[in-house]
Design goal:
CATH class: Mainly Beta
CATH architecture: Beta Barrel
Strand content: 25-35%
CATH topology: L,D-transpeptidase catalytic domain-like
Helix content: 10-25%
Largest sheet: 5 strands, mixed
Number of domains: 1
Strand order of the largest sheet: 4-3-2-1-5
Order of helices and strands: EHEEEHE
CATH superfamily: L,D-transpeptidase catalytic domain-like
Shape: globular
Radius of gyration: 13 Å
Length: 101
């Protein structure tokens, strides 16, 4: 689909969606957010995807678990190794249109 990068964050806070907490009750401790850092699932950078002005809850973000890239591991986000998302973060402006196929 076609959407926009509404905003970008360096070292973002990660908050698991409610459906993820239901699947993994051990994540309830992060309901208010996991602080940024090397073990944070959003990695070093995150691009926030909105469609028609509404947050899709999907992100393009880094991942500390590089060995999982390319596997269905998340709730629909597009994960990248940290050095690649850092590079992309610098190249993409907030408001940029993206197409995900």
């Amino acid at each position: 689909g076609r959407a926009r990068i509404q905003y970008k964050k360096k070292w973002p806070v990660w908050t698991p969606p409610e459906e993820m907490i239901q699947r993994r009750p051990d994540l309830v401790k992060y309901r208010s957010g996991m602080p940024p850092g090397l073990t944070n699932p959003l990695g070093a950078r995150a691009l926030y995807i909105f469609h028609d002005g509404v947050d899709t809850l999907f992100r393009i973000h880094g991942s500390p678990e590089w060995w999982t890239i390319g596997q269905a591991m998340s709730s629909g986000c597009i994960r990248m190794i940290n050095q690649d998302i850092v590079d992309l973060y610098e190249r993409v402006s907030a408001g940029a249109t993206i197409v995900v196929g």
